[in-house]
Amino acid sequence: MRRIIGNQDERVARWVAARMPIFEFGSTPYTAIGLADQTGALLAGVVYQNYTKTDIHMHVAALPGKRWCCRAFIGEGFRYPFEQLGCRRVTGLVPAKNLEAQHFDEHLGFVLEGRVRDILPDGDDLIIYGMLREECRWLEVGRNHGRKQYSTTDGWRREAAPVHSTGRHR
């Protein structure tokens, strides 16, 4: 059984940063959610940073392969910026060499918006993806209406709910 975890921002952000060299841990304020297996080991993480009220950057890292991916986690990943923060859009930044991440973003529904040339330390380009709230098909996916939600100053504290996966798309 997998669980979506909150309230462990630093743990998740360090895990994401170790797998994603373009994400600079602690360079700007951030928050994060993770997906853990039954032992508590992280399978995937999303770090949100550069919040501007209309936009926020999403950085996603996961173990290799697709076995970690579940619809409930993806749904939670998009509900935070669009519903809790009220953003109109989210931005994804992907190194041009990372074709797997580009395909993942496009599968999620991100739209290619541009390219920043020769910006990464290794000389690679950075691909810019964006998703508008009205383009997001994940907001109702995996919603757990029975879960307790706590009102806090940062708006992101929920009681973790178990994630069940059948291994097939619904």
Account of the protein in words:
With 170 residues, the chain is an alpha+beta fold. The protein has one domain (2-139): Aminopeptidase, CATH 3.40.630.30. It is built from three helices and ten strands, in the order βαβββαβαβββββ. The strands form two sheets. It has an eight-stranded mixed β-sheet, with helices on both faces. It has helices spanning 9-19, 71-84, 99-108; strands at 2-5, 30-36, 42-49, 55-62, 89-95, 111-116, 126-132, 149-150, 157-158, 162-163.
- CATH topology annotation: Aminopeptidase
CATH class: Alpha Beta
Q: Whole-Å distance between the termini? A: 18 Å
Helix content range = 10-25%
Strand content: 25-35%
Tally of helical segments: 3
The coarse overall form would be globular
CATH-level-2 architecture: 3-Layer(aba) Sandwich
Order of helices and strands: EHEEEHEHEEEEE
Q: Give a quick account of the main beta sheet: strands, pairing sense, barrel closure.
A: 8 strands, mixed
Beta strand count: 10
CATH homologous superfamily label: Gcn5-related N-acetyltransferase (GNAT)
Average pLDDT number: 84
Q: Based on helices, strands and strand pairing, what is the structural class?
A: alpha+beta
Number of domains: 1
Question: Regions with pLDDT < 50 over 5+ consecutive residues?
Answer: 145-153, 156-161, 165-170
Keywords:
170 residues, alpha+beta, Aminopeptidase, 8-stranded mixed sheet, two-stranded antiparallel ribbon, 21% helix, 31% strand, disordered C terminus
